[in-house]
Amino acid sequence: MSIKKQVTVAILAGGLGTRLRDAVPDKPKSIAEINGRPFITYLLKQIRSSGLKNVIICSGYLSSQIEEEIGYEFEDMDIEYSVESSPLGTGGALGLALPMLHTNYLMVMNGDSYVDIDLNSFCRWFNDGNFEAALCMIKKNNTRRYGRLALSPENRIEEFLEKTESEFPGYINAGVYLFQKKDLGQIPVGIEYSLEKSFLPSLIDEGLFGYHCRARFIDIGTPKSYEEASEFFEKVIE
Predict the structure, then answer these.
(1) Is 56 helix (H, G, I), strand (E, B) or coil?
(2) 163 vs 95, which has greater pLDDT?
(3) Half-sphere exposure of 14 toward its Cβ, with a 13 Å CA cutoff?
(4) Contact (Cβ atoms closer than 8 angstroms) between residue 94 and residue 10
(5) Among residues of the chain, what percentage have pLDDT more than 90?
(6) pTM
(7) Which site among 25, 83, 99, 167 is 20 to 30 Å from 182 CA-CA?
(8) Buried residues in 33-49 as b, exposed as e (16+ CB within 10 A)
(9) Is 57 left (phi over 0), alpha (psi -120 to 50) or beta?
(10) Alpha carbon distances (Å) from 19 to 14, 38, 194, 205
(11) Distance (Å, rounded) from C-alpha 112 to C-alpha 178?
């Protein structure tokens, strides 16, 4: 049975984008222009093509620009906004948005990265496995910039390994997640809290699994990767 009708998507778009400030000085990075359109619209198109309908944009820095650019409807999807009055971190942003969540599952995407996958396949895999929580992961020859995932033979995540100065191959966290709503209640509300450093590690004992994506991936968090995004999206089929 499909879980799609019970999935809301939250896009984390509240970051300050300090590393990208030289290339994009006056906008949130989620609406930085790529080939003539805001980056976040590539995510919204991907979500829409998977048949998902409910989206919450978790914004903060220059949030009014995102609302003016995207509005409250994208194609036939409803867009809601959860706006931080002060920085709460990636986990704190989710905690603030939880009262807006009226479905049994929450998919979370980073507002500055894109994984060229079929989100339907991710949902089916999650449902078939009856997982509590999962993330998309991608194999990289060099994980130096991202850190690595330590995995069991069943792709259960056992540890998040920090970035190192050495070059190691392995799997990286691609920044797309699926959670059951009941597991989100442990996120504290109103304080700064990290999804990556606090919430995800807290799920390891309960069961956090990795979905192997053989897919193209990009984040636009640095001027170099932002420059590469134009060519990347020329190859994305919409």
Answers:
(1) strand
(2) 95
(3) 25
(4) yes
(5) 67
(6) 0.93
(7) 83
(8) ebeeebbbbbbbebbbe
(9) beta
(10) 14, 18, 19, 34
(11) 18
> Tokens 């130096």 map to which residue?
144
For 4-234, the fitting CATH number among 3.40.50.720, 3.90.550.10, 3.30.300.30, 3.20.20.70 is 3.90.550.10
Q: Alpha helices of 33-145 — where are they, by DSSP H?
A: 39-49, 63-70, 89-97, 119-129
User: Which pLDDT tens digit goes with each residue over 178-213?
Assistant: 999 999 999 998 899 999 999 999 999 999 999 999
pLDDT in the model for residue 23: 57
Tokens 């000085």 label which residue? 25
Contact 29, 130 (CB under 8 A): no
pLDDT at 90 over 80: yes
The Cα–Cα gap between 196 and 72 comes to 28
Token pair in block for residue 170: 């392995």
Mean local confidence (pLDDT), 61-71:
91
